[in-house]
Amino acid sequence: MTRTASHVRWDRVGRFTLLLVALLLIALYVNPVRTYVATRHEAATKRGEVAALQREHDALVRRAGQLRRPASIEVEARRLGMVRRSERAYVVKGLAPD
User: Which residue among 23, 38, 67, 90 is least packed, with the fewest CB closer than 10 Å?
Assistant: First the structure.
């Protein structure tokens, strides 16, 4: 009885196995890379927000410093229509609006 030898091409099996392992490794790295990119994008967005808030804070600190001066307090009070106790308030009607 003659036996027919099975011809397994081990080089092809090895390449196919190597391809499957490579695809598995790539699949395992997809989610961490996607998370990393999303985190970098969010960090850049947050840095922009922090910079805008820092500029707003600086402007508010300058404004608070200005409002602590007596002259600017008087200017703001006059802008709101206030007068001193020793002054008499007048209302002028019929002027053209600015």
Answer: 90
CA distance 43 to 56: 20
Write out pLDDT tens, residues 55-82: 999 999 999 998 888 888 888 888 898 8
- Per-residue DSSP letter, 81: T
DSSP structural state of residue 82 = -
Rg (CA), the chain: 39
Domain ranges of the chain: 12-79
pTM across the whole model: 0.53
Structure tokens at 39: 């985190």
Instruction: Name the token pair of 56.
Output: 């707003």
